[in-house]
């Protein structure tokens, strides 16, 4: 999953980005509303964390612009403790959730996980596909109850596919959603990671749909 953080406080921005990256996300960041608005309109993010008190362009204006452009990614707004009116404006502009400053990073991470689950039709933190279970809260993967050790890139790839179980995902889409904007992207590496995942999982749940991409589907109901 690829996320955008728009926060003008450089220390807080770095803290959020670091926490998200450690949790297995690809993250881009911006420090003002103008840059954040541009990134949100031009890059395919799975979710965004948006501060409302931004320089150049305020957060509500950024969010309004995203929604006018048809950008549907879930957005968590960051608000000051005593600015309830900001929360109302944020929700009216199209926000999905909010976190009040100061906040515990674990709360923000939990809200991100919840938004991503809901956006892809999953009800709990554990996503299953046949014998494979992925716990988005702990970042652990198991097959038939046996833990599987994955690299960060392998985990990102499996997580994206499992969040989108039942849908064909192209190599281009995977490349756009697994790496941040500074990464030297090469869609051919996706094939390499798919091969490694298949070998580590030891079960045939990742199907190659020739000319289209990859499909995770065992015919079972999503959790």
TrEMBL record:
Q: Provide the species name.
A: Microvirga brassicacearum
Question: Which parts of the sequence carry 4-aspartylphosphate?
Answer: 51
Keyword annotations from UniProtKB, A to Z: DNA-binding, Phosphoprotein, Transcription, Transcription regulation, Two-component regulatory system
Residue ranges: DNA binding: 124-218
Protein name, as recorded = Response regulator transcription factor
Q: Which SMART domains match?
A: REC, Trans_reg_C
Supply the source organism's classification.
Bacteria, Pseudomonadati, Pseudomonadota, Alphaproteobacteria, Hyphomicrobiales
| Domain annotation OmpR/PhoB-type: ranges | 124-218
Under SUPFAM superfamilies, the record lists: C-terminal effector domain of the bipartite response regulators (SSF46894), CheY-like (SSF52172)
């Amino acid at each position: 999953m690829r996320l955008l953080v728009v926060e003008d406080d450089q220390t807080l921005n770095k803290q959020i980005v670091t926490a998200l990256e450690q949790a297995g996300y690809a993250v881009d960041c911006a420090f003002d509303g103008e840059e954040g608005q541009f990134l949100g309109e031009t890059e395919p993010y799975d979710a965004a964390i948006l501060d409302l008190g931004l320089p150049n362009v305020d957060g509500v204006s950024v969010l309004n612009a995203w929604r006018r452009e048809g950008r549907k990614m879930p957005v968590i707004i960051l608000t000051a403790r005593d600015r309830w009116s900001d929360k109302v404006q944020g929700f009216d502009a199209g926000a999905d959730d909010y976190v009040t400053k100061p906040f515990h990073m674990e709360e923000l991470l939990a809200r991100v996980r919840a938004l991503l689950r809901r956006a892809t039709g999953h009800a709990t933190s554990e996503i299953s596909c046949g014998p494979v279970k992925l716990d988005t809260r702990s970042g652990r993967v198991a097959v038939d109850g046996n833990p599987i050790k994955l690299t960060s890139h392998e985990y990102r790839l499996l997580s994206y596919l499992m969040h989108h179980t039942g849908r064909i995902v192209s190599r281009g889409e995977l490349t756009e959603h697994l790496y941040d904007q500074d990464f030297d992207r090469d869609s051919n590496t996706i094939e390499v990671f798919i091969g490694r995942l298949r070998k580590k999982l030891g079960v045939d749940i990742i199907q190659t749909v020739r000319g289209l991409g990859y499909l995770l589907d065992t015919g079972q109901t999503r959790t």
